[in-house]
Specification:
The complex is a heterotrimer of chains A (149), B (651) and C (294). Chain A is of the alpha/beta class and 149 residues long. Chain A is 43% helix and 15% strand. A four-stranded parallel beta sheet of chain A has the order 2-1-3-4, with helices on both faces. The relative contact order of chain B is 0.10. Chain B is 28% helix and 24% strand. Classes of the chains: A alpha/beta (149), B alpha/beta (651), C alpha/beta (294). Chains A and B meet through helix 1, strand 2, helix 2 and helix 3 of A and helix 4, helix 5, helix 16 and helix 17 of B.
Chain lengths: 149, 651, 294
């Protein structure tokens, strides 16, 4: 089995990231300033608040070819806009149920709280999610979702 | 169709060392709408900025993407360059290829590939950006301060000294607040009224301060820079300007009521002055406790005033409505004490010799119910053994308040020390959990109290207080010796917690300022923005925001005042235009967005279409994500742009 | 009259053995008041205070099993013993939290329980379902001025955050009932103090500072007897008055009865039905009343 896998053809998951500018984006920057290395599979879109992230955008990302979506916001109680992150959490819970119904593995969409001082944590989370999605394999939306429909 | 220019920065070797700059430039140049792409060693430097300016002119660019360090570093710099070159500053996007690319990926190939995507994202976004103008709102250069305690007094004076008109609204008949009820203040043992008095007088005499006593805020409309506040002022039935506080009215008044300034430990008449140094120095008729005004049952006060006084009373007075226009509001509503009757283990309200700390404070005061002598409420005898219980109903999430009120360790030390000073053969016991004496001179003060006055500090809690044979049996524990302790006390003083003033709940909803889980005014950020509410234009000072001592209160008040002075320094105010917008034709009037906005910036207009107050909107975007009809959009971060960026990533 | 209202009932171990009088008197009172206590199927020991430890999930297997079985029959479970009440009520609250430890317990028990059973004390049935006023109306023999000290102990009241049975420092539910029976409830400071619990069994000599001071406190405030809701409290309070196996002089012994026994007497039931012994009855009959003391 192992011999059959060629190292060059290792599956590289494509993950769309939504990072809130006040906490998690700053945390990601801190990881950079601290020169902490992590895989390049997550591409970050900077939003003002994780509350901006409409669940339909998450599904759009998956439908457009992403293998995973990563949403990061401030820790509860720290939101720059008071409680946008709590609203994100509510939507996320409902989104998870939808993903179940679509037959999409829950691990593909992840919500994390990363503060502006958690550079190391950001790197760890990115590493973790990349490996998780890698082991799940490519999403193949057409096959997974449109087959169920 | 935009003409986009892409500028890729080497940042010395910071980017160039791990990213193939030439490839990035080449690929960027091939993107749709990109007419020019170039690199430079240090774009933030003078030559770099000059390059951008020249390129914009030469190639007629109307939008730029700067691929460099994080926008957190230089976004304002590059936006300003764009603006100086004739572009709208919102047609400038930053692609972060340093902190989130070059510096974090080992492999040059990986870092470069990611840089391509990041640049592509920014290009797709900037193509759809609208040219925006900052939102300008006028600023009314007047200020409202709600609450006339030491916080409100200090803030009002600082703003007034800064040259602006201040309205100071106070619900009672006098300013001074809690500090006026104190005997001394820690750690200096200054006489509280002596240091507060001059400030109160300064407020009264200040040409820029209009003091509205017996007043409450009834309604608040508008937004930062443009508040319209309706204040209702109850009548004092006494002309402030003419009254000379001779007191003849009170002598003649037959109605006696418990004096709330002394927590019911003494009496006052229905017409009264709250305390001797009250400001304004004029009497107040308490209509609720007067024998009757409609119809007039008595009128002795007016008769006495006409005969012996300055004839300054008017028993036919009515409340006055003040409609104020202000640019900023400072909320300094202060605190009350937690209801000690809820602490059933201590028997407050059942045993007369169990008192709260503020009641004991009034007893210590020379102007108080016992002219400064310590007496048992039950029999008027001098107590010889007093037990002070710290953390009464505090630091107890299950049954009472979860938090610490910060000042109790300090004032308990002062109380115990003053008691020993007045009753030298008395003994004071203090039950404590911790001693929190973190301010300047505080630790030294507590130690001094303990050592000089021989106070007995017992580390442990009190389980129960009950009465037996005229004594209060206090059952507690001393954890340092590991023994249970029983003290047969004459008096028990409870250091009860500080809770926000009972008015704050209603006021907060009028101001649309949020309260935290304990009812205190929320600050915009607990660390970096402790002086302002998340609601723009509302500033906070004093214990109404969180329990604190006088030095912190004064510091916070001056800080809030300085923020207000900054706000008022210009006749207009500019706010970021990247706010929410409603496409009226798509709005179904469902109202889902209204409840989600932390700033109450959304409302339904007369046609039941949602409207955004641009002055209040902070641009978080939470409402956009909730709109089922897609009627809400966030300027320059529309769903269209989000999708464009998503597609740029997954291509 | 329609079919009697019946409540699912968990007596616990003591009420079937050493505290049979508590069980029988309660059942007799229930019948007199028009309802029935129906014992649940599949009873086992609740574990008493041992089940409240947090570091050994095994202790929770028993009470969870009780509640799972009770749930098969009803969503309300009535108890009398303060210990059972405390354990079962708190077990029910923790089960609702659906924590990982609850999953472990359910997997072990193979009888899953995730909350949904209201654990009530007999006093709550009297207060909320029957109503103290209705109880008052059903009194046939008012216990004229009998000076009773209600003793609550710990387990009925604490921890307040979970029990929420009554004010933990100044409770009044028992006094409210006793007043309806014609008694004069005596307020004494030690009525919520600990009796010593199992120390009374394991190191009898050591409960003097606890149970002993409760007796002294009640007597000094004028109580003629104590009314309790826990077999262990009764045992401790009585045994603390026996020095070296001998009792104090007759006039100085403070009898301890279950509140259901006083309730039964007031409802006109026979002392034998309530399993009151002659000494207790003599104490009740000869207790000084306010009128006698003048």
């Amino acid at each position: 089995m192992i011999a059959a896998i060629e190292v060059e053809k290792r599956f590289e998951p494509k993950i769309v990231g939504f990072l809130c500018r006040w906490c998690s984006y700053a945390g990601a920057d801190l990881a950079g300033t601290s020169r902490i290395k992590y895989p390049p599979n997550i591409n970050a879109i900077r939003v003002n608040c994780s509350g901006r992230v409409d669940p339909t955008l998450v599904l759009k990302a998956l439908a457009s070819g992403a293998d995973g979506v990563f949403i990061a916001g401030c820790h509860p109680g720290d939101c720059h806009y008071t409680n946008g992150n709590i609203k994100t959490l509510r939507r996320f819970k409902l989104l998870q149920k939808m993903l179940d119904q679509f037959g999409i593995e829950r691990e593909r969409v992840r919500l994390e709280w990363v503060s502006a001082s958690e550079g190391e944590r950001y790197a760890r989370v990115v590493k973790g999610m990349t490996e998780d999605v890698r082991s799940l394999g490519p999403l193949n939306w057409k096959r997974t979702v449109e087959a169920v429909a | 169709m935009k003409r986009v220019g892409v500028f890729v920065c080497h940042c010395g070797l910071n980017i160039a060392g791990n990213v193939n700059i030439k490839e990035v430039v080449d690929k960027a140049g091939k993107q749709q709408d990109v007419v020019f792409a170039i690199d430079h060693k240090y774009l933030c430097s003078e030559p770099g900025q000059a390059l951008i300016k020249d390129s914009i002119r030469q190639h007629n660019l109307d939008a730029i993407v700067v691929a460099a360090c994080s926008p957190a570093m230089h976004e304002p710099t590059f936006k300003t360059i764009a603006q100086l070159s004739g572009l709208n500053r919102y047609n400038c996007e930053i692609a972060n290829i340093r902190e989130q690319s070059s510096w974090v990926h080992d492999d040059v190939g990986e870092a470069t590939a990611k840089a391509h995507i990041t640049v592509r994202q920014s290009i797709r976004k900037v193509r759809l950006n609208e040219p925006l103008q900052p939102i300008t709102v006028p600023v009314t250069r007047k200020v409202l301060v709600i609450g006339g305690g030491i916080a409100g007094i200090r803030a009002a004076l600082d703003v007034a000294n800064g040259g602006y008109q201040v309205y100071l609204v106070e619900k009672s008949g006098t300013i001074g607040g809690r500090m006026a009820q104190l005997s001394e203040t820690f750690p200096t043992l200054d006489c509280s009224t002596c240091i507060l008095g001059p400030l109160m007088v300064e407020v009264y005499r200040h040409p820029n301060i209009k003091l509205l006593r017996l007043s409450k805020v009834e309604d608040v409309k508008g937004y930062i820079g443009n508040f319209k506040v309706r204040v209702r002022q109850e009548p004092a039935y006494v002309d402030e300007a003419k009254c000379n506080a001779c007191g003849e009215c009170a002598k003649a008044c037959p109605a006696q009521v418990p004096n709330e300034f002394d927590f019911g430990l003494t009496w006052r008449k229905a017409i009264y002055t709250p305390f001797a140094q009250a400001v304004p120095p004029a009497y107040v008729l308490d209509a609720k406790n007067c024998l009757g005004l409609l119809p007039q049952a008595c009128g002795e006060c007016k008769k006495a005033c006409d005969k012996f006084g300055t004839s300054c009373m008017d028993l036919d007075a009515w409340p006055r409505i003040h409609d104020l226009e202000v640019g900023a509001i400072i909320a300094s509503t202060g605190y009350e004490l937690y209801d000690a009757t809820k602490l059933t283990e201590y028997g407050y309200g059942i045993f007369p010799d169990v008192m709260t700390s503020l009641e004991f404070e009034r007893m210590l005061s020379a102007s108080g119910p016992t002219t400064g002598e310590i007496k048992r409420p039950s029999d008027g005898q001098t107590p010889r053994e007093i037990v002070f219980i710290q953390c009464a109903g505090q630091r107890e999430p299950e049954t009472a308040l979860p938090y610490c009120s910060k000042i109790c360790c300090m004032y308990t030390a002062r109380h115990a020390m003053m008691f020993r000073h007045k009753v030298p053969d008395g003994q004071a016991y203090v039950f404590y959990m911790d001693i929190r004496a973190g301010g300047k001179g505080y630790e030294e003060f507590v130690k001094r109290c303990q050592e000089e006055k021989g106070l007995l500090y017992l580390r442990g809690r009190v389980a129960k207080v009950y009465e037996e044979n005229g004594k209060l049996i206090v059952k507690g524990v001393d954890t340092l010796s590991g023994k249970t302790v029983q003290i047969n006390a004459d008096l028990v003083v409870l250091a009860v917690g500080m809770i926000p003033s009972s008015e704050s709940h209603e006021l907060a909803s009028k101001l649309k300022a949020s309260l935290d889980a304990n009812g205190f005014f929320s600050e915009a950020h607990p660390k970096l923005r402790p002086l302002e509410s998340p609601t723009a234009g509302i500033f906070l000072a004093g214990a109404g925001q969180s329990p604190k001592d006088i030095p912190e209160t004064v510091a916070q008040a001056s800080g809030a005042a300085s923020k207000v002075l900054g706000l008022l320094s210009s006749p207009t105010l500019e706010r970021e235009p990247t706010v929410a917008q409603v496409v009226g034709e798509l709005c179904s009037g469902c109202g889902i967005c209204l409840s989600l906005c932390p700033y109450d910036a959304l409302s339904l207009n007369a046609e039941k279409i949602a409207e955004v107050s641009e002055a209040l909107c902070e641009g978080c975007g939470t409402c956009i994500a909730s709109c089922p009809s897609g009627a809400l959009t966030l300027r320059n971060l529309t769903d269209e742009q989000m999708v464009a960026m998503i597609e740029a990533i997954v291509e | 009259m329609q079919e009697m209202q019946s409540y699912l009932y968990f007596p616990g171990c003591s009420l079937r053995t050493v505290a049979k009088d508590f069980d029988r008197s309660a059942k007799a009172c229930a019948r007199a008041l028009g309802f029935e206590l129906k014992e649940m199927q599949g009873q086992l020991c609740c574990g008493a205070v041992m089940s409240n430890v947090d570091d050994n999930l095994m202790t929770k297997a028993g009470p969870n099993r009780i509640l799972a079985r009770a749930q098969q029959e009803d969503h309300t479970l009535v108890t009398l013993c303060a210990g059972c009440y405390n354990v079962l009520k708190r077990t029910g609250l923790h089960a609702k939290l659906a924590s990982s430890s609850q999953q472990v317990i359910n997997a072990f028990n193979e009888e899953s329980f995730n909350g949904g059973v209201d654990v009530l004390h007999f006093l709550e049935i009297l207060r909320d379902r029957v109503g103290f006023d209705a109880v008052g109306k059903a009194v046939k023999v008012p216990l004229k001025g009998l000076r009773v000290g209600a003793y609550y102990g710990c387990l009925l009241l604490r921890p307040f955050g979970e029990m929420k049975f009554d004010d933990p420092n100044r409770p009044s539910i028992l006094e409210n009932l006793l007043v309806r029976l014609g008694c004069t409830p005596i307020d004494y400071p030690a009525r919520t103090d600990c009796c010593g619990s199992y120390l009374g069994v394991s190191s009898t000599g050591n409960i003097q500072p606890l149970s002993g001071s409760i007796i002294r406190s009640a007597r000094s405030c004028g109580a003629s007897l104590l009314a309790v809701s826990c077999p262990l409290c009764k045992y401790n309070l009585e045994s603390s008055q026996l020095q070296n196996g001998k009792g104090p002089p007759p006039g100085e012994f403070l009898p301890v009865v279950y509140f259901t026994q006083l309730l039964g007497l007031a409802l006109g039931l026979h002392p034998e039905e309530l399993e009151l012994d002659p000494r207790q009855m003599q104490a009740i009959r000869e207790a000084p009343t306010p009128m006698v003391q003048g």
